[in-house]
Amino acid sequence: MTRQDEPLSRTRRRFLLEAGAIAGAAGIGLPRGSEPAAATPASMRAAIRKIVGEAPLNRGKIKIDVPALIENGNAVPFTVSCESPMTESDHVKAIHVFTEKNPQPNVISVQLGPRAGRASVSTRIRLADTQKVVAVAQMSDGSFWSDDVEVVVTLAACLEGT
Length: 162
Prior knowledge:
It contains 2 helices and 9 strands. It is α+β, with helices and mostly antiparallel strands.
């Protein structure tokens, strides 16, 4: 009798493999009834406070360029730029973008330095719904500047769990 002809013996390893296969087939271990992640205006403000801390948030210097009306929120053209000479002593250290209704409030954070030449970032973002988009620029002197725009989305993106 060869090893292949022997009846399968019950070992702990075999038991665990079979139990894992049964649990996987039954869906055990999957989160049930969990709510999809969703940012709120309050969570957006909290995310901004996490970056800014207690420093005042000034209006100006930074500008968001995004269409006011978007037909499809899956790939929204987005540019954010900040007025700065981008010298060693006066430059933009970081640009942060937040939304109030996407699954997560933080959309993007970009670290910059004086060698960047100019403080401008262009990309495409997803927007889950009509919402406010906020950009915050962190300057080398420790100040923070912001801009916000309201974007109307007719076909939402970022839908988790559907």
